[in-house]
Specification:
The protein has about 400 residues and is α+β, with helices and mostly antiparallel strands. It has helices at about 20-30, 60-65, 115-125, 175-180, 235-245, 250-260, 305-320, 330-360, 365-380, 380-390; strands spanning about 5-15, 35-40, 55-60, 80, 85-90, 95-100, 110, 130-135, 135-145, 145-155, 160-170, 185-200, 210-215, 220-225, 230-235, 265, 275-280, 285, 290, 300. It is globular.
């Protein structure tokens, strides 16, 4: 064991997941020299969320990631989403969104979290203004004059501490920092697990995505850049174990029975992973000289594909608010950040949670409302505009990070 003297920094970002890495890059572009602290060591084992989940990234998010120099580091470019088909088992109507009809080449694109994580990691390594501490966990925090002291422990058992003027918790859904900062969270258990895998779809066309809702949860197919489809399937928590235990052929049949034949025969599912679905929302996203971003601030139902898209906008908004600041933790800067993010966060949470609950409900009024909604959206291009806007992630993207999409 070795003890080291306190070091000083402006911004300390705790958590080098998808949002923490994006934030460190954006801060560096805005004149800060952040320290990025990630518990997982660099090497063959990646941070936990750099896994096989397929991320649907809104067009505006892709533009911002391109500006951050991340997209060019992907081994394969994101697979464009050119059409989205939305329906609900047992309801009338369906909606088909076509990018060409809205004057754009694609609504967004799909990348595997593992690939995006790798590209973010490469971009962070190439950025001299970021000091990355991998294999280092924050084990405690204490308030000091004009900032925080972080206690750090490496996987080798080395201990040290670091002082910062602004502490950013990007440490994910189970954020320990959130608790240490005395911030409570609201939790809603959807009573579902989401089973994720890749699959072959014999009748699917490139660029096509489907979202089909049902009382037991959504089923979606997303186009991937390896010619397969990313399948997500919501199942009641009580049945998740049995569904995960099915062999591959039986699971393909199960998925087909839930999804139907819109994309032809589904076969050859890849490795399955099941995620419990809970909405977790921090009651506030700041404390003195501290901010929560990404999943530490809000963990959403993946049904609306908003989690990382929103976390990225948090990160970019924070980088704007502290741009060029000598002391990035002063109350005026934090207040500007909170003001700039309030509306987007409120709307995205309402959209995502509302979609998850309304589409799952078998209540007669909810069914009628949905059928009417789907029918109206099906016939009117104008009615579809807000949905298209959400799919492209335009709302809430800070001005400075808007690219071709806006
Ligand atoms: C099945 C599924 C599908 C999804 N699909 C989409 C989608 O299509 N579109 C979309 O936008 N979003 C999607 N999401 C959401 C998205 O994956 C998350 O919003 C995103 O990963 C959150 O990133 P984060 O950096 O906030 O947290 P995380 O990725 O969880 O990162 C937190 C990091 O903090 C580190 N850490 C924790 N504690 C400490 C500590 N004490 N010290 C140091 N480091 C620490 C961890 O090791 C980890 O690397 C999906 C999620 C799921 C589960």
């Amino acid at each position: 064991m070795r003890a080291e003297a306190d070091e000083d920094t402006g911004v300390a970002v705790v958590g080098g997941g998808l949002v923490g890495c994006s934030l460190a890059l954006a801060l560096a572009r805005r004149g800060q020299r952040p320290v990025l602290i990630e518990a997982t060591p660099e090497g063959p084992v990646a941070p936990p969320s750099f896994d096989e989940r397929n991320l649907a990234l809104a067009r505006a998010s892709l533009d911002a990631l391109a500006m951050l120099g991340v997209l060019e580091g992907l081994d394969r470019p994101p697979e464009p989403i050119t059409q989205i088909h939305v329906s609900r088992a047992g309801d009338l109507g369906s909606v088909r969104l076509d990018a060409a009809e809205h004057g754009v080449a694609a609504f967004g694109g799909v990348v595997m979290a593992r690939d995006l994580g790798k590209a973010l990691s490469r971009a962070v390594s190439a950025e001299a203004a970021i000091s990355r501490r991998s294999g280092t966990a924050v084990t405690a925090i204490e308030p000091v004059a004009q900032g925080w002291r972080l206690h750090l422990a490496t996987t080798n058992g080395d201990r040290s501490s670091l002082r910062c003027r602004l502490l950013v918790a990007a440490d994910g859904s189970d954020s320990r920092l959130r608790g240490w900062l005395g911030i409570d969270e609201e939790v809603h258990d959807y009573g579902q697990h989401l089973v994720v895998c890749s699959i072959e779809a014999a009748g699917a066309r490139r660029g096509q995505a489907w979202e089909r809702f049902s009382a037991t949860g959504p089923v979606a197919l997303l186009p991937r850049n390896d010619g397969r489809w990313g399948a997500v399937c919501g199942v009641a928590t009580a049945e998740a174990g049995a569904v995960m235990a099915l062999d591959d052929a039986a699971y393909a049949e199960y998925l087909q029975s839930r999804f139907g034949w819109r994309a032809g025969r589904l076969s050859r599912p890849g490795r399955r992973v099941a995620y419990p679905l809970r909405l977790r929302v921090a009651r506030r996203v700041h404390a003195e000289r501290a901010v929560l971003v990404g999943n530490a601030a809000q963990t959403l139902h993946p049904v609306g594909a908003q989690g990382f898209n929103l976390g990225l906008r948090d990160a970019l908004g924070l980088a704007e608010a502290v741009a060029g600041a000598e002391d990035p933790g002063v109350p005026q800067r934090l207040a500007a950040y909170l003001r700039s993010r309030e509306e987007d966060r409120r709307r995205t949470l309402a959209f995502s949670d509302g979609l998850a609950r309304l589409t799952a409900s078998e209540n007669v009024a909810a069914r009628a409302l949905r059928s009417l909604g789907l029918l109206a959206l099906g016939v009117s291009r104008r009615a579809r505009a807000p949905l298209v806007h959400a799919a492209m992630g335009l709302t809430g993207m800070p001005e400075a990070w808007r690219g071709e999409a806006s």
